[in-house]
Amino acid sequence: MKQLSRYVGTFVLGSIALVLMVVLGIDVIAALIDGLDEIRNDYRFRDVLYDIGLTLPSRIYRNIPFASLIGCLLGLGVLAGNSELVVMRAAGVSLLRISGFVARPVILVIIIGTVLGDFVVPYTDQLAESRKMLLRGERDNLATTSGVWNRESNEFIHFNAVYPNGRLFGVTRYRFDQQRRIEAVSFSAQATFFDDYWLEERGVITRFIDGGTETDSFATRRWESGLSPDLLQLVSMAPESLPMESLYNYAGYLDQQGQTSSNYWLAFWTKALQPITILGLVLIAVSFVFGPLREATMGYRIFSGVVVGIVFQTTQQLLGPSSIVFGFSPFWAVMVPAMVSIIIGMVLLRRSA
Question: Is 329 domain-assigned?
Answer without folding.
Answer: yes
